[in-house]
Design a protein that fits this description.
about 270 residues, alpha/beta, about 30% helix
């Protein structure tokens, strides 16, 4: 029986088969902030939202976060209590998820709390800029992997996670710059968004997607609402990538950035 997919759609599906399904989970204030401008307050959601986070981790092969989040907070990126580890086993997953930290310069503190729980590997996605820091990370128990000269090439990194570690479902927990990099590269499939009844304000406070962003409304990533529910004063939303929703534009934007980065690197040589 012939497939009704066009060659372009078949090629796109084949490319996606080499990458994990990527979910982004974010709790934000009603004005769209992930933390205060000084980053001292980043946990403000309810106990129900914390349960939601662990429920999502219980479905993922790996959990991704940025080095700043891991350094500034007591973050372990693990599945939590036996209740959630049991759920993982029932789903046929490893009892403990793989933990992934992204850091352009490899500045993750070797004394960070994440290294005190050696239940699963800690992968550090980094760049050539981090070479001097790699020995310290390895001594702390991390497995650093280089993808790019000055910026992490997340498409290559995610393909490597799928091929090397069997990661089929990756849960990203931010921060804003990592989210933005994944969105603009067209790598995010699902967005879980918890809106909390607080106003943080702050021009420099982190948001859902920081970084350079999309250059125009036409190139912006498009999403479709899947479901929502209210629990007390919090709103839990789920979005899926809109069919064709900015994927080509994101790919072109990513390619332009890569060319620009390559030119800059040549000028620096």
């Amino acid at each position: 029986m012939r497939s009704n997919k066009t060659p372009r759609r078949r090629a796109r599906a084949a490319a996606r088969a080499t990458l994990p399904f990527v979910s982004v989970n974010v709790a934000m204030t009603a004005d769209g902030k992930l933390a205060t401008a000084n980053r001292r307050v980043s946990s403000f959601s309810s106990p129900r939202d914390k349960e939601h986070l662990l429920e999502l981790r219980a479905r993922a092969d790996a959990v991704l976060s940025g080095a700043r989040t891991v350094d500034l907070n007591e973050v372990f990126l693990d599945p939590g209590s036996e209740k959630y580890r049991r759920r993982r086993r029932r789903r046929g997953l490893a009892e403990y998820n793989l933990r992934v930290v992204a850091s352009r310069r490899g500045t993750l503190d070797p004394g960070a709390a994440i290294f005190t729980r050696p239940n699963s590997p800690v992968i550090v996605l980094t760049t050539e800029r981090a070479r001097r820091r790699l020995p310290a990370l390895r001594r702390a128990g991390a497995e650093p992997a280089i993808f790019g000269k000055t910026e992490v090439d997340f498409r290559r990194a995610l393909a490597w996670l799928r091929a090397r570690h069997g990661v089929k479902h990756l849960l990203c927990e931010g921060g804003g710059e990592i989210n933005e990099a994944l969105f603009t590269a067209g790598l995010v499939d699902e967005l879980h968004l918890t809106i909390c009844p607080k106003i943080m304000g702050g021009r420099g406070a982190p948001t859902l997607a920081d970084g350079a962003g999309f250059p125009s409304l036409a190139s912006a990533s498009r999403w479709r609402w899947v479901r929502s529910r209210r629990v007390a004063d919090e709103l839990f939303l789920v979005f899926r990538k809109h069919p064709g929703g900015g994927a080509h534009a994101a790919g072109r934007l990513s390619a332009r950035r890569a060319r620009s980065q390559s030119k800059s690197e040549r000028r620096l040589r």
